[in-house]
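Sanity check

After download, print the first record. It should look like this:
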Amino acid sequence: MSDEFPDMSDAYEVFAPAKTNLHLRILGMRDDGFHEIETRMVKLSLQDRIRLKWRDDDHVVLRCSDNSLPGGEDNLAVRAVRALEVHTNKVFSISIDLEKNIPSGAGLGGGSSDAAAVLRAINVMGSLFLPEEELASVGATVGSDIPFFVYDRTCDCRGRGEIVVPVPAEHGIEPLPVFLIKPAFEISAAWAYQHYEASAEYEGFLYHEQVCPWGTMVNHLERPVFEKFPVLGEMKSWLIAQPETEAALLSGSGSTMLAILKQGANGHTLRSRALERYGETCWTFLGKTC
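Expected structure tokens:
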């Protein structure tokens, strides 16, 4: 905690939603060393709370409820402020109070969402009037998932994730009830992509595309992740077999497993069984896509 942190009672407040990928396909390696992907990303009702307030000095000060996360200039939210300063040739002296609810290393995009929320907030607070496309391009210089969160709605993403096309509302999906479960370990997205090429080819029902009313669900990153962490593959099999579950998938690069629930299903019952099977140290969430 910084002694310089101001009273935030009259701060500007925003919320940063988590995301999941309804499908994530890896198309090959790019010349720049990144993987070419195509994915459909949707928001979740799980969200971080962020409060921002102008300062009277030249500092950007971040306070986070999760002390395990990087602070200062290493935090994506602070890096987003710096990127916006470069883009606009302005200095933004601001305090950022970040209340974390989205776990890190979970494949839920929490850090990227926080960064995008800060960009959107400063755009309003500073009366910058930058259009979404311009703000998204600033975010892309910081992280591949940030442009999706700038648009703040269901999007199809390509390239390394920075080419974002919002899905028109009439072509989108209705909110889906979801159950998330994450074991007590994290997975680095960089690690998952780096080990994709060396992992075995897909085999068995675990990797089959699941055809659902809202489209096809598949995640190519399950291949390296399940090889390294077989408990997640077993968890997917178990979730698919449950009567409450419509489909199940690794969320992003993990380690969160996503279960889409059948309409009217009792998610609390599923959560109780899951915790009994996989242990009370697992993090869980019941909510919906947005």
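If your output differs, re-run the checksum step. Summary of this record's structure: Helices lie at 76-88, 110-125, 132-140, 146-151, 189-194, 222-228, 230-241, 267-278.
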